[in-house]
Amino acid sequence: MSTRIFLATLGLALAGFTPTAASANDKAIIVLDASGSMWGQIDGKTKIEIARQTLTEVLGGIPDTLDLGLIAYGHREKGSCSDIEEIVRPEPGTRDAISAAVRKLNPKGKTPIADAVEQAAISLAYTEDKATVIVITDGIETCNADPCALASELEAAGIDFTAHVIGFGLTAEEGRKVACLAENTGGRYLQASNAAELAGALTETVAAQPAPAPEPAPKPQPEMLEKNILFTASLTAESSDNDPEGTWEAFLMNGDTPGKDNVLYSYAMPLSEHLDPGRYLVRFSKDLVKVEQVVETSATELLTRNFVLDAGIIRVSVAADEAAEVDDSARFDIKVAGGETGGYGQGTFVVPAGDVQLTASLGEASTEESLVLKAGEVVDRKLVAAAGVLAADVTYSDGGPLVEDGSLRVDVLSAKMSIDGKRKDITGGYGPGNRFKLAPGDYLLRAELGAASVEEPVTVKKGEMTPVSVNLNAGVLNVRAPGAYRIDILPAKADLQGRREPIGGSYGEEFQITAPPGDYKAVATMSGDGQAPDKELPVSVSAAERTEVTIE
To answer: Rounded to 5 degrees, what are φ and ψ at 38?
Structure first.
C-alpha cells in the first residue's frame, strides 16, 4: 500500500514539468542523502531501497524537456565532509541516468547538507536563472556548516531560487534544524515518516511551481523553560553539608546505551542548565567517587535530582615527625577498592565510604595507615614518615678543601650485609652537597671519585640533620704528553704477582685523575701501532694537592 501511494504522488509531482508547463528555465536538481543512516529501516525496508525503487519507477514519466540533475552525498567515503558528487548534470532526458545512478548508491558517510545545496545552486546558475533544489535527507547537518545562513545567502543572490526539504524519518527537533533551508528561500519543509509520506512529499515539492507559501514556523510555547534541570550532590542522603564541587557530564541515551561524547560538561554546584528534551545518562564525579543516574528532561518542567555519593572527606598531610610542618616534597597515596589517587604535601579528597589505605613517603622513609571511612564523615590524617636528614660533604683531606667535582658519587648503603656479603643500596647522588632524607637508623656512607674511595658508618636520627664530612684522602694528578696516543697511570710498585694494573687512563695528550696519595708511574703510549717507543715518568700524589707533570 505504501509503495502504490508513493508512486502515485511522485507521478503527480513530476507532472508539474509537462511539456506545456516546462520552459527553457525549468531546471531542478534532486539532492539525495546517501549517508550511512540511510541503511535505517521503515516498514521493514531500508530507506535507500525505498528511494531507489520509487525514483526508478517514477522518473519514467518525466518529460524530456525538463533539465533535471542529481547530486548525492555520503556515498563514497566514511567520515568525509567533502564527499559530494554531482552524478547527473541538469540536462534534458536524464531520467534513465538518474535511475541508474540511484541504484548504484551505497550509503556510508556523513551529511554535508549545506555544501551539497550550495553546489546544486551553482550548477543551476542560480544567479542567472530560475533554480529549484529538492533535498531528501534522513539526518541533520554533520559537517560544521550553517544551512540556515546558506539559505538566506542563496535567496538574496539568486534570481528565483527555491529549496524544498523533505525530512525522511526525522524527529520534530531534527526537522527544525533543516526546515530553515526551505523557509528562508520560499520553499516548503515536509516531514515523511514512511514510504507513503515520502512519496506525497516528493509530489508536493517537485510538482509545485511555484511553491506555495511556507507554513509559518510554530510559535514558541510560553511555558518553555530557559533552564530545565537543577542537580545537586551530597555525601549522604540525609545531609547536604559538605556538598563537594566536582564534574558534571551528560550523555544522550540511544536506547539503553549512552552516547560516547558528552553533550554537557560543567563544574557548577548546583548545576542549573538546559538540556534538550530527551533521556540522558548524567554523571557526577569527584576524586575517587562517581555516581550516575538516567534522567528524562522536558521542555516545560523543571527536573530536580540529588546525587548521593555515599562518601566521606579525607584531609591528609605528611611530615617528618608529629611536631614538624607539612613537607611539600612528601608523597602520599589514597587507595580504595575502586581506585586510587594521591599528591604531595597535603590535600583534601572525596572518598567512597569503606576501607581506605593511606601511604606516605618522605625520601627513603615511609609509613602507612588503614581506616574505615563512614559516609558523611570528615577525617583529618597527618601521616608521619619519620625521617632525618643526612648532610654528606666530602673533602680531599682531613679538614682540607671540599670536593666540588660533579663526577663525585656518594651512596648510602645498609649498615648490615646480607648473608651473601652484599649491602643494599638505599639512595645516592652525584656532585657536592648531597642531602638525603632517611628513616632513622644506621647506614654506611660511600664516596668515590676517580681511583679514590672511602666508606664511613653514619647514624641518622628522627627529625634531625646529621652532618657528615668524609675524608676522601686524595689528590689530583694532571699529566700531559704532547703527541701521545694514550696516557695511563700505574702503581710505582708491582703487586705480589708482579703485575701493575692501571688505576686510570684515556686516549689523547692529556689525562687527569683523582687518586690516593702515593707514588705512581705515568706511561705515554706514543703510537697506536707500536712503532714509537713508550715514554714513562715517575709521579707522586699528595692529599689535597694538585700535581701537574709533562712527559717530554
So the answer is: -70, -5
Q: What is the pLDDT of residues 199-215, one digit of tens each?
A: 666 666 654 444 334 56
Rounded to an integer, what distance in angstroms lies between the CA atom of residue 9 and that of residue 54?
10
Nearest CA to 443 out of 423, 414, 421 is that of: 414
Q: How many Å separate Cα 244 from the centre of its chain?
A: 25
Q: What's 402's DSSP letter?
A: B
pLDDT tens digits for range 479-504? 999 999 999 999 999 888 888 899 99
Residue of 281, 13, 315, 280 whose CA lies nearest to 164: 13
Name the 3-class secondary structure at 430.
strand
> With a threshold of 0.70, does the pTM exceed it?
no
HEC string for 90-155: EECCCHHHHHHHHHHCCCCECCCHHHHHHHHHHHCCCCCCEEEEEEEECCCCCCCCCHHHHHHHHH
Q: What structural domains and CATH numbers belong to the chain?
A: 2-207 (3.40.50.410), 229-308 (2.60.40.1120), 314-383 (2.60.40), 388-471 (2.60.40.10), 475-550 (2.60.40.1120)
Instruction: Tell whether the torsion through CA atoms of 145, 148, 152 and 154 is positive or negative.
Output: positive
